[in-house]
Amino acid sequence: MTLTVLTPEKMLLETAVSKVSLPASKGRFMVLKDHAPLISSLEEGRVVFVSDGVEENVDIASGFVEIAYNKVTVCAEL
Fold first, then answer.
1. What does the alpha-carbon distance between residue 65 and residue 48 come to, in Å, rounded to a whole number?
2. Which tops the pLDDT comparison, 18 or 25?
3. 25-47 per-position pLDDT tens digit
4. Contact criterion met (CB below 8 Å) for 44 and 31
5. Are 27 and 38 in contact (CB under 8 A)?
6. Are 64 and 40 in contact, with CB atoms under 8 Å apart?
7. What are phi and psi of 9, to 5 degrees?
8. How far apart are CA 35 and CA 19, in angstroms?
9. In angstroms, rounded to a whole number, what is the distance separating the alpha carbons of residues 76 and 12?
10. How many helices (H) and strands (E) would you count in the chain?
11. pLDDT category, 7, cuts 50, 70, 90?
């Protein structure tokens, strides 16, 4: 799966991941390979992801996420 994090200023990261945890408006949720397509708003919190077996994170202030065809695209304010 590919995770892309975009801000209004730049592309923050683009990396292959095995899972992503997101701070959505209705609560935190996990995205794994072959997740159903989804668009959701995001709240302040931490986007946590596992890349090459290493857990990493990015703190966001708000934004939204689109999930489709093993691509997770986060558009966020930091």
1. 13
2. 18
3. 889 999 999 999 999 999 999 99
4. no
5. no
6. yes
7. -90, -35
8. 10
9. 10
10. 0, 9
11. very high
What lies within 8 Å, CB to CB, of 28 at 6+ separation is 21, 22, 45
Residue whose C-alpha is closest to residue 14's, from 40, 51, 42: 51
**Structure confidence by residue, pLDDT tens digits, 39-78:** 999 999 999 999 999 999 999 999 999 999 999 999 999 9
- 68 half-sphere exposure, CB direction, 13 A CA radius: 6
**Short-list 37, 2, 32, CA closest to 17:** 2
How many whole angstroms separate alpha carbon 7 and alpha carbon 53?
25
Rounded Cα gap, residues 70 and 62, in angstroms: 22
Residue 24 CB neighbours (<10 A): 16
- Sign of the CA dihedral with 12 first, then 16, 21, and 26 last: positive
